[in-house]
Write a structure and sequence with these properties.
Chemotaxis protein chec; alpha+beta
Length: 189
């Protein structure tokens, strides 16, 4: 049986960070409670496929990062997991502002995708810090890659993983943000 990282540890870190960032600090109230679902990972040529059409009916900004246990694993392309952040373009400006990010001209997709990459880095940092505080080994996160609607070449992840968690957040009467993650077991410190 393939071992995976316990969602009961990771999901509260992610949902707690989003609540703190967007609701407590940013002042955005959730339109409805977040939803968490498990989905099989679609893989192509050893990378996790990322297509927004599986989650959203609208255009989205996507940012993704992969996690590694050390620099050698990063250089050897041996990812332990991945984190992908999707933000609905219709509400992206308000989501980014609530997150305390400087929002560029919102009609410029490249600068909005870059801002989505900053949000992804913040989320990856919160996840790494939360896991480290729970006694797990520190991880490295790759620089985020940013796209609109899909990541054609996919995202590096632990190839032993067959399932990912997807968390949907609802703000401004929209399915505004989705965060998907997969993570192989990480050693304790």
């Amino acid at each position: 049986m393939v071992k995976k990282f316990d969602p009961q540890i990771v999901n509260p870190i992610i949902t707690g960070f989003m609540k703190e960032l967007l609701t407590t600090t940013g002042g955005l109230e959730a339109s409805q409670p977040h939803e968490i679902i498990a989905q099989p990972i679609n893989e192509y040529e050893g990378r996790m496929c990322v297509h927004a059409s599986e989650k959203f009916d609208t255009a989205v900004y996507i940012a993704a990062t992969s996690f590694y246990l050390n620099q050698a694993d990063m250089q050897g392309h041996r990812a332990r997991g991945a984190l992908v952040v999707y933000v609905d373009t219709e509400v992206a400006e308000k989501i980014f502002k609530a997150a305390g990010l400087q929002v560029p001209y919102d009609e410029d997709d490249q600068s909005m995708m870059t801002t989505g990459g900053t949000l992804c880095q913040m989320m990856a940092g919160a996840l790494k810090d939360g896991l480290a505080a729970a006694g797990f080994a520190d991880m490295l996160a790759s620089p985020p890659c940013v796209y609109k609607n899909s990541i054609p070449e996919g995202v590096a992840f632990s190839k032993e993983q067959k399932e990912k968690q997807v968390i949907f957040f609802y703000f401004l009467k929209h399915k505004a943000v989705a965060i998907e993650w997969t993570l192989a077991p990480i050693p304790k410190k």
